[in-house]
């Protein structure tokens, strides 16, 4: 893995998201709890809604356009929705810095 520092956890609002522009496209970094973050594609596969504008609840995000709900651990859609989003490995350091696996992002952009 090739870890890249993308900022401090306090840069991401609690139960909110920030967008990271990468070679694979926009990645949303979600903060679900005081010390819990996830990274996933920012684009809903249904109608292309910006997931970073969605509602973060538990370890899920709901698309702001048509209410599709995605598990931030797996990227899988809940319920009858047949879809998934890409997820990316993150590491939260003791000092609050968020690290993302740059190799995973690069691999997705090459696919």
Summarize the structure in short.
This protein has 111 residues and is mainly beta. The chain contains one helix and ten strands, in the order ββββββββββα.
Residue fraction in strands: 35-45%
Order of SSEs? EEEEEEEEEEH
Calculate Rg over CA atoms.
13 Å
Helix content: under 10%
Total count of helical runs of at least 4 residues: 1
In round numbers, the mean pLDDT is 92
Shape: globular
Structural class: mainly beta
**How many beta strands in the DSSP annotation?**
10
Report on this model:
The protein is mainly beta. The chain is built from 1 helix and 10 strands; from the N terminus they run ββββββββββα. It has one helix spanning 102-110, and strands spanning 3-8, 16-22, 25-33, 36-41, 55-57, 60-62, 69-71, 87-88, 90-92, 97-101. The strands form 3 sheets. The chain has a 4-stranded antiparallel β-sheet with strand order 2-3-4-8. β2 (16-22) and β3 (25-33) form a beta hairpin. The longest helix has 9 residues, at 102-110. The mean pLDDT is 92.
List keywords for this structure.
10 strands, mainly beta, 111 residues, 8% helix, four-stranded antiparallel β-sheet, single chain, globular, three-stranded antiparallel β-sheet
Q: What's the structural blueprint in terms of helices and strands?
A:
Elements lengths: L2 E6 L7 E7 L2 E9 L2 E6 L13 E3 L2 E3 L6 E3 L15 E2 L1 E3 L4 E5 H9 L1
